[in-house]
Records
---
Amino acid sequence: MESGEEEPVEQEADVEQETDDEQQVEPSEQTAEAEHEIEAEHEAEEYREVDTDTAAKPKTKKLKLPDFTFFKSKTLVSTAIIIISILAIMYIAIYVRSGTLDSPTVLDYDPWWFYRHAKELIENNMQMPVWDELSHFPPGRPYEPYQGWAYTIAIFQKILGPLLAFTLTETAKWSTLIMAAFAVVPAFLLGRLLSNKWGGLCVAIFGVLAPTLIGVSMAGYCDSDMVVVFYTFLSIYSILLAMKKKVSLKSMPYYIFAILVNLAFVFTWGYGWIILLFFTAFIPALFIFRIIEQIFHKRSFRISLTELKGETKIILPLLIVIIVTNIIGYFLNLGNIIVTFILGFAFTQGQLLLVNISVAELQQTSIFVQSGFNSIVDRVGLGPTLFTIGVWPVPIITSPLILFMLFKLYKKKKINPAEIFLFLLSFATFYLISWGVRFSLLFSTAAAITTGYIVGNIPKYLNKKILKVTLFGFVAVLVLMFVSNAISVGYGTGGMRISGNWYDMLDWINEETDPKALIVTWWDPGHIIAGYTGHRVMADGAHCGPGLGGCIPYSHDIRIQDMGRVFSISDEEEAIPILEKYKELTPEQCAEARETYGTLVPADACGPVPEMYIIASSDLISKYYWLSYFGTGTGRNYFQLSISDYDEAQGVISYGGGQVSLVYENGIWIPILNFPNQGIRNVIVKEILYFENGQPKHLVSNETEVIDGMVWVDPGYGTVIFMDAAIRDSLFTQMFFFNGEGLEHFDLVYQNLEIRLFKVIW
């Protein structure tokens, strides 16, 4: 950072600007009261640029020769450095995410939702179908209006397909990398608007390289997280830019730009109203802060309404953007900030979909204990956390932003409206993390903006060069650490690829089943199944509530409860009627759907389905607690233990430090359970299933003093799983561990190491 370098126009409010029709008077010539009034007027004008068209101009012109010294100027060098820096950040943003480019398809679960919709757009002349038969069938669901990201991927394909001979899969894999590079630009412009170019570079670096963002924007992970970050920066930038302009026809392009950007944000992400929601909250917050300022500055509780009235100059443009965007959003069926606030409040009160309690990233987190605070640092980065929240064990209190605002109160300087907005944005999103670490993504963008603001503005208050140099060195070290960590996170991000066993099973479904067959399983892989095979699924990750805009007659909650029950009960005669609900809707149920959605519902949406298949996969072993909880009301776990010791002489294999042991006697393995904290000491488990020479061996003890349950031993003897009696007898155990042996209504048609696929026999 060059010592003392500042940006005109985009500087903080303390940089003096001319008023519209008056000549500015030096504060030193005023009384103390008048000085305060002038400072208030300056602050109210801080978001406005000087209208150079009306500025005084010389009456005579002098003939000048071309000045070629520009090409040797410091300005050109500085600009070149900034451009090179931006390009370097773009390159790093792509580089750290490129490790998964060799995946044969898009990654994980949710990205398939956007991939499938982009494919449908391309196949349908860029028109989204009105009814989605593949999701939550029967009868399916109406397409959500928030399809901006799917359209963006489709547009990328229209460009990259002919240009680079990319398939849609290749374009989808590159889409998040492209958006990561694009996001650098609005991030830099926003930081520059709030401070200077150095602040802009900080926002760009900390914004696009946040660890929590990298994990959900790797090549192939074409979920909407990266595009949400892009629009967050662009939305805030567009609104602040509009707030600088007077309410006039000349300012209309800025208002239109802000309105279009925010509508595009909402079209891409249904909760894109959140930025306008924060700016709405900013309006009363601004007046509250100004009242507090007056009390501190004047040491009196007498409030000057004249000073408060001056704030309307930045509030009016904001109100125009907020009101017009909401009106247009309503008519475009995109919702509004009121609906967003209600849904957000309902979420924090646990009133939304039941499935949310089973999502790991939506579990409540204590952000004011050291472990919770450290998890935020891991996700957001040390630098942004320090500059926004402060240090442990006194976060918030040591926040540089708060300290900066308190310093201004002490010095009787007006707090910048941008600081008030950043205060709301940063600490509200920080609080949201307590409702789930998934919200760390929103906080990471707020922290990046706040960090850029602090870094860009603090040097003006450091009156010694050594302090500025120290700050520069400190920030440089944090940036280097941050970039190094981003590279490590990118290289270390894995586990999101679909395994070969899943590809093989999906290929079998494509080749051997009816195209209209219904595939049922736990909801997680629904997007993969629909996106890869084009088959209908009974449930997926596109959470679907009841009522208008949702799933009729069976909401997402009902479907996961039904699926959980099918897997966790032991009686297949009870499971079949549950599955039969999704074979065909009753005439009354079909009429309800058509009454709600009219002609949107296709003729065959109510069934019957020609075939139904159910998948029992190994990943459900670790998820079984939630299957059983939703299905029976009691959560149960498979107890998995790794080998810890093998005493060959005694013929004893210990797992989990002796919690489970296998004792070899008389040519067979005997399972022993040892849970002292539960009063269980060296008790035989009733059943064991292990493999000998590749063949399964299922033994049942005839001892009287036994634990009713089963120990399953993997073929390599590296892991055992203990099951209590309820889990052992469940349909999932019968399907996955016993390959459906003895079941009459579930015919095993395909299997591999990870998956058992059954055809339902009615």
Note: The longest helix spans residues 465-492.
---
Amino acid sequence: MRLKLHFLPVLVLASLTSLAPAQEPRLEFVLQAGHTGNITSVALSGDGKRVLTGSQDSTAILWDAVGGQQLQTFRHAHWVTSVALSGDGKSVLTGSWDKTAILWEVASGNKLQTFEGHKDALTSVALSDDGKQVVTGSQDKTAILWDAATGKRIQTFEGLTGVVSHVGLSGDGQRVVTAGGMRAILWDAATGKKRRTFELNNFVNSVSLSRDGKHVLTGVKGGTAILWDAADGNHLQTFQGPYQFLTSVSLSADGTQLATGGILPGPVILWETATGRKVRTLQMDARFVTLSADGKSVATASTDRFTVWETAGGKHLQTFESPLGAVADVAVSGDGKLVVTRSDDYQAIAWEAASGKVLHTFDAMGIALSGDGKQLATGQVGITPILFETASGKQVQTFRNVHTYVVPNVALSGDGKFLASGGNDLRLVMWEVATGKKLWDLDQWGGTSDLALSHDGKLFFAASGDAVFLLDAASGKELRTFKHADSVMSVALSHDGKHLLTGSADKTAILWEVATGKKLQTFSGHTAGVTDVVLSADAKLVVTGSKDRTAILWEAATGQKRQTFQGHSGWVAGVALSADGKQLWTASHDGSTRLWDPATGKERFRLYRFDGDKDWLAVTSDGFFDCSEAARRFVTYRQPGMINRHDDDDTRNRFHRPGLLTQIWAGER
């Protein structure tokens, strides 16, 4: 079992310099598959022709609202929590959990300015119409007004009693509004002084400021939106929706209409501000809504999709939903011929490495592959771990009547005789594979992040919190503890059971001597938590994967780096190494599984699977591809630095290489 994390970016670029005719422009491959994480925010251009979305995959994506094409991707170090578009559509503003906001140039995708100064994650951002001023709100209970050109702080709005959940900025940049707790506050941008406080009877989830700064719209948790006169604080109109949780409000530039969105239930409602009359109801779950400046379009977003509508008739213009999910784990058979990947939708796929052919799919919350690859143990969203014959998908054994909640962690001994499981019911259980019989059960043991069994099934390792516990597999008796400075995220064991490798949120991996508990080597070099680890069959090499989007190959004895594998745009959540050490596999939240040459560090290919196992796409680092017919629609190209795509069959045919994986395995590529 490997660490399960959420969501990261989808844009993939690869320079195409070889095999393309010299007279033709150099192109780069761009995957058109949307976000791999939950959508967190949405914004519309003034004319409604472009949509900007932010996501937990650490990206913001700019879309053509009419054609549905991805135009540009903007990447942060952590979740993008809020997005905004300038009035002229030439720049994009993004805010992130990485405590920064970034202003980007749309045409090139380049950073124009980074705004640093908050002490905690950003929750909301806003941009003036002329793009000259930026407002950011944060969990640090402050909002800041910035000069967009210089990145300098103009004003800090302090004295707030809680997290700033939302911010707004008038078109001329003279008024700022903040929402937090049970109040919204209107501020003078030049002086930083409060002009008006709006007290509510519930938590304010969203706020919108009219373009002229004369009206403030607040949305509260209980389902009510209220329009206020900014000058005197008078309550002008109430809009009561059916929501249990109203999550988003948006006011048109001229102040004549507004939109509300919420959940339980989740229709989007368009209202006439003057009368409070419902103009239109769009029947869809929408946590986020935004009106275009001209009021002709509205964009609505749930966590996994967004839609653009025409406000006048409620006509559905475009829906965007990514078919690509984050890959959370990877395992490879000893001979490197069979690969199993698990996605965050709890689906595992066993496939032939040389052809990409799917052998079988499994429901799986966690996976453990036997050394020969013939058996696959799965942790279940249900309460029963299951052992399968990998190639056929035939169920070999079930392990019943012990776990009472989901089972995310499983481990299989190398000889296939024993299986261990850790459930969210805080149980650790050891099973005999042949009979399905429970050998022992530790009730209320605690939560686990990873498990490992020695090849002979005599030693059992369970990671929990900042420690790994060595247990006697026969009795469940605790023998030894191995400690990190932070949570342990992954464990691996040498074939002979003499060495333990652990990876931690403290950004290190440690190699231990099992018999003594002695620390043999510390591997330091990642800039974020180590999510997965693996030891080579001879225990001479160590591989680590990290939230910093890289994997590293190390010498076990010296702790020296041999290779760093870069290219993923999302967290590396899983790593695997073939027994001969010639294949290194990585699985990432960017939706790809990649094969690397450990000797050179070169990426050999990346594989994407869409809608489970229905469609697939394999791409080399220089942009040549093979895919199922339906996956061709995700393949596009562009000239470096250009926003427009070459989304045509002629271009795709130039780079399509049927039988690509077979050619790679035959050494022809």
Note: The mean pLDDT is 91.
